């Protein structure tokens, strides 16, 4: 099956996954454009689709240089790794990103996966935190209360995350 969609003035051919209906852009999107399809690459806070890197609006993921530690197992790990792992799980059926803003060389968008809002899923799992200007504060509060992901009681986390955890208690 071939699907054609006009995306940021060029006509792009998107191959639909054979195993499921692709995630597509809705007609009532928030931004002026939308890009959708299979993901070519990702990290904990952005996805690459059709050569464009879209940063998920409203979330913050610890950089690779930040180290976390599980107090119980005494293991140290890159704090962004859980976000990258969860992102990979959520992106298996494709993604649709409504472009909200283009600032310099960064494209920011609200993205949807088969399970729903991508940013909300990451913040709700406790692997990303809500940006102070973003819509995910209630999801962060729920993750903090449930001690999910990096908010777990046995985690040593970066100082900025720890300040949020203490404020939430």
What does this protein structure show overall?
- Helix content is 22%, strand content 36%.
- It has helices at 81-90, 118-124, 137-146, 159-168, and strands at residues 2-7, 10-15, 33-37, 41-42, 46-49, 52-56, 59-60, 67-70, 75-78, 95-103, 106-113, 116-117, 129-130, 155-156.
- By secondary structure, it is α+β, with helices and mostly antiparallel strands.
Entry summary:
By secondary structure, this protein is of the alpha+beta class. The protein contains four helices and 14 strands. A hairpin with a 2-residue loop joins β11 (106-113) and β12 (116-117).
Anisotropy-based shape: globular
The average pLDDT is 85
- As a percent range, the share of strand residues is 35-45%
| Counted beta strands | 14
Can you tell me the CATH topology?
Answer: OB fold (Dihydrolipoamide Acetyltransferase, E2P)
The helix fraction, in percent, is 10-25%
| CATH class membership | Mainly Beta
Largest sheet: 7 strands, mixed
Order of helices and strands: EEEEEEEEEHEEEHEHEH
C-alpha-based Rg, rounded:
17 Å
Terminal Cα span? 51 Å
Which regions contain 5 or more consecutive residues with pLDDT less than 50? 1-20
CATH architecture: Beta Barrel
* SS field, number of helical segments: 4
Coarse structural class: alpha+beta
Number of structural domains:
1
Quick tags:
single chain; 169 residues; alpha+beta; OB fold (Dihydrolipoamide Acetyltransferase, E2P); seven-stranded mixed β-sheet; three-stranded antiparallel β-sheet; 4 helices; 14 strands; 22% helix
């Amino acid at each position: 099956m071939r699907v054609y969609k006009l995306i940021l003035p060029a006509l792009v051919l998107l191959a639909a996954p054979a195993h499921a209906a692709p995630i597509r852009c809705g007609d009532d999107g928030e931004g002026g454009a939308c890009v959708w399809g299979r993901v070519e690459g990702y990290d904990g806070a952005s996805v690459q689709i059709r050569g464009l890197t879209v940063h998920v609006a409203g979330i913050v993921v610890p950089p690779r240089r930040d180290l976390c530690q599980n107090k119980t197992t005494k293991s140290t790990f890159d704090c962004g790794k859980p976000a990258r792992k969860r992102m990979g799980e959520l992106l298996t059926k494709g993604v649709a990103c409504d472009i909200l803003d283009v600032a310099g060389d960064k494209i920011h968008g609200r993205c949807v996966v088969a399970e729903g809002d991508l940013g909300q899923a990451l913040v709700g799992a406790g692997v990303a935190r809500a940006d102070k200007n973003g819509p995910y504060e209630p999801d962060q509060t729920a993750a903090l209360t449930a001690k999910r992901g990096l908010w777990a009681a046995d985690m040593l986390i970066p100082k900025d995350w720890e300040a949020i955890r203490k404020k939430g208690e």
